């Protein structure tokens, strides 16, 4: 058996090692997200990777439960590795933060796991970071979540982000006002949930659905645009419930405008989301460089009630690994940090650690050479290196610049940091 | 991304009709024979790749292609997170339950226990569930019609376009379990980030199909 075939060297399918620039990028992106959340007043909390199966099940639908890693505790109760973290936050809020003044702003970052077949190209472990804003029923809370998510992506260097904002009650309210019998309604809803327009068309054929509702349901991928689509859609609907949704979205748009982010927002009336879970505005974040959403969120006013703490809530999750993929595809900087290698002559070895400390204090990442470098003044320093020579001179090449002296090096660092 | 949309076409029975449809609709002027020598052709309006039919949903779901053309029968068996936008009407075939001539099942009497051989276990399971039948499925990868003759299964659930293969193997159609035609599918993000191009593609194909200029007769 060759070394490569040895089971001890294997890695479970669907999982990845993160090394070098990729590992660095993943950490930097996660930190950029959490730093942004903190800057908006969201308190960080850390929850376990393992939860009771019934806790996890309250957050994910029936379909996703089959995709959890499940196992048995010593007492025979069933446990699961978390597939998302909102439900853990909800558990904490309903047990340990009862009676705390609302609104509560909480954030988290950590891995989630899915037990799905490993060869489909879909990873089984993902890093997620997100926010939950609990205790406020209004649209200003929904708008804040969208604004925080956009700010976090911007801080991580992900550019060209598009935000699609929809509402969990628009399609259901259309279905209810469309004059469909229960069976047809179920078939249309299932088809929409399955993102199958052909089946929507088939299910609507021969039903009593009103023309306006039928047209809107069939046009759903094209029901996107700026604030004007609310008027376009509103003109075709008479029922008060979908009208109320349109009014909510109009107000949400105005709040988003005050946050200054409507330039990257599309209203998407046909957004197909988990209607049983979400109860109000929903949103997804996309990059032109990636075939999956970078993040998603929305209002979920029913979840906390499942834990005995009836409170309105809204929030979102960002998929760190997908954001890293988007960065890698070239829409932004790659987040890699190169440490400056600091060499020194044998005679100056005693001063080198202090010099390294001084540079680090100024924010330069410094890797101190472990042995004195030979004194060869004629040998030029290479990019990413500084050298403390016999005579006390510090020669360096850093971020494409070249010079001598610590002050000049710090100045180059400050220029690069801007 | 320059060069328009990235489209995945299925090799095999649907391929020539798919190429013709794209040309007729003015989406991309491509001739099927050009793919004899290469698998990827870039036109000014679109980049088109030819992949195995079962791989079309993979390319589209993972975002390697913005959209693709694929038979509904493929989508039954590989539930992927894509949007299914347009029924393209060509490549029509049916999924049927076939039983040996003279067997009780062939006369419509369902026995207590039943074993069915199929290449389509997900669609077959859905069909039998809808009838309330607990059927043991045997997944095969080809020549499903042989299974009853060799005593491997009592019946088959298989795709047929003309019914000739069933007859040749002394099987009769007992019931229809589904209908398949070619579909246009789209990546979930492409529908949002390239929505204009994807919606134009869908509209152009829908127009062409409705006008009947794509007279694909299926396999």
Q: How would you describe this structure to a colleague?
A:
With 418 residues, chain A is an alpha+beta fold. Chain A has 14 helices and 17 strands. In chain A, the strands form three sheets. Chain A has a nine-stranded mixed sheet with strand order 1-5-6-12-11-10-7-9-8. A five-stranded mixed sheet of chain A has the order 14-13-15-16-17, with helices on one face. In chain A, strands 2-4-3 form a three-stranded antiparallel sheet. In chain A, α1 (20-39) crosses α12 (320-331). Chain A is elongated, with a radius of gyration of 27 Å. Chain A starts with 19 loop residues before the first helix and ends with a helix. Chain B is α/β, with parallel strands linked by helices and 219 residues long. Helices cover 28% and strands 29% of the residues of chain B. Chain B has helices spanning 15-24, 56-61, 72-77, 121-130, 146-149, 164-168, 190-193, 195-211, and strands at residues 5-10, 40-42, 46-51, 67-71, 82-87, 93-100, 115-118, 136-139, 155-160, 171-180, 182-187. In chain B, the strands form two sheets. In chain B, strands 2-3-1-4-11-5 form a six-stranded mixed sheet. Chains A and B meet through α8 and β10 of A and β5, α7 and α8 of B.
Please mark out the parts of chain A with pLDDT under 50 across 5 or more consecutive residues, or reply none: 331-335
Query: Largest sheet of chain B, described in full?
Result: 6 strands, mixed
Q: Kindly report the greatest chain-chain contact and the residue count on each side.
A: A-B, 24 and 27 residues
SSE string of chain B: EHEEHEHEEEHEHEHEEHH
How are strands sequenced across the largest beta sheet of chain B? 2-3-1-4-11-5
Q: Residue share in helices of chain B?
A: 25-40%
Query: How far apart lie the N and C ends of chain A?
Result: 54 Å
* Broad shape of chain B: elongated
Structural class of chain B: alpha/beta
CA radius of gyration of chain A: 27 Å
Q: Which structural class do the helices and strands of chain A define?
A: alpha+beta
Order of strands in the sheet with most strands of chain A: 1-5-6-12-11-10-7-9-8
Main β-sheet description of chain A: 9 strands, mixed
Strand content of chain B: 25-35%
Name the shape of chain A in a single word: elongated
Question: So how many helices of chain B?
Answer: 8
What oligomerization state is this entry in?
A: heterodimer
| Helical residue percent band of chain A | 25-40%
* Low-confidence blocks of residues of chain B: none
């Amino acid at each position: 058996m060759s070394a490569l075939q040895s089971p001890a060297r294997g890695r479970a399918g669907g999982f990845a090692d993160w090394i070098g620039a990729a590992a660095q990028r993943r950490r930097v992106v996660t930190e950029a997200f959490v730093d942004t959340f903190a800057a908006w007043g969201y308190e960080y909390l850390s929850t376990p990777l393992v939860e009771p199966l019934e806790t996890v099940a309250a957050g994910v639908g029936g379909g996703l439960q089959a995709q959890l890693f499940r196992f048995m505790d010593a007492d025979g109760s069933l446990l699961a590795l978390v597939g998302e973290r909102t439900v853990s936050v909800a558990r904490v809020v309903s047990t340990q933060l009862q009676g705390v003044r609302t609104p509560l702003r909480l954030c988290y970052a950590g891995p989630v796991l899915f037990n799905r077949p490993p060869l489909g190209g879909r990873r089984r472990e993902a890093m997620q970071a997100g926010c939950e804003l609990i205790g406020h029923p209004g649209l200003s809370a929904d708008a804040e979540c969208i604004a925080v998510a956009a700010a976090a992506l911007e801080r991580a260097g992900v550019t060209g982000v598009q935000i699609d904002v929809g509402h969990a009650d628009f399609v259901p309210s259309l279905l209810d006002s469309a004059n469909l019998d229960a069976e047809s309604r179920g078939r249309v809803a299932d088809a929409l949930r399955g993102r199958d327009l052909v089946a929507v068309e088939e299910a609507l054929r021969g039903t009593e659905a009103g023309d306006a509702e039928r047209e809107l349901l069939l046009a759903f991928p094209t029901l996107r645009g700026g604030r004007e689509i609310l008027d376009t859609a509103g003109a075709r609907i008479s029922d008060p419930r979908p009208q109320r949704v349109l009014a909510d979205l109009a107000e949400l748009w105005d709040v988003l405008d005050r946050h200054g982010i409507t330039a990257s927002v599309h209203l998407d009336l046909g957004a197909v989301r988990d209607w049983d879970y979400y109860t109000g505005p929903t949103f997804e974040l996309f990059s032109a460089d990636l075939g999956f959403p970078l993040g998603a969120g929305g209002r979920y006013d029913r979840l906390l009630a499942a834990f005995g703490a009836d409170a309105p809530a809204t929030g979102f999750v960002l998929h760190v690994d997908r954001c890293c993929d988007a960065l890698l595809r070239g829409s932004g900087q790659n987040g890699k940090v190169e440490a400056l290698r600091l060499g020194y002559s044998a005679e100056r070895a005693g001063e080198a650690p202090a010099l390294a400390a001084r540079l680090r204090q100024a924010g330069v990442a410094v890797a101190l050479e472990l042995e004195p470098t030979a004194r060869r003044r004629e040998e030029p320093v290479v990019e990413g290196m500084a050298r403390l020579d016999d005579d006390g001179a510090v020669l360096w090449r850093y971020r494409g610049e070249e010079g001598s002296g610590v002050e000049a090096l710090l100045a180059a660092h400050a220029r690069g940091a801007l | 991304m320059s060069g328009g949309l990235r489209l995945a076409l299925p090799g095999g029975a649907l391929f020539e009709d798919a190429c013709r449809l794209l040309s007729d609709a003015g989406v991309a002027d491509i001739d099927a024979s050009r793919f004899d020598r290469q698998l990827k052709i870039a036109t000014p309006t679109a980049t088109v790749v030819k992949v195995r039919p079962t791989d079309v949903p993979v390319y589209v779901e993972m975002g390697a292609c913005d959209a693709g053309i694929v038979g509904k029968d493929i989508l039954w068996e590989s539930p992927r997170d894509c949007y299914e936008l347009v029924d393209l009407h060509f490549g029509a075939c049916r999924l049927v339950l076939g039983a040996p001539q003279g067997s009780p099942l062939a006369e419509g009497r369902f026995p207590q226990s039943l074993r069915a051989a199929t290449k389509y276990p997900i669609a077959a399971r859905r069909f039998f569930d809808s009838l309330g039948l607990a059927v043991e499925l045997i997944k095969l990868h080809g020549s499903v019609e042989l299974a009853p003759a060799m005593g491997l299964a009592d019946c088959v659930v298989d795709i047929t376009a003309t019914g000739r293969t069933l007859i040749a193997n002394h099987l009769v159609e007992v019931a229809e379990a589904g209908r398949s035609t070619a579909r246009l599918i789209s990546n979930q993000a492409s529908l949002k980030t390239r929505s204009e191009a994807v919606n134009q593609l869908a509209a152009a194909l829908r127009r062409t199909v409705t006008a009947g200029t794509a007279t694909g007769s299926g396999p």
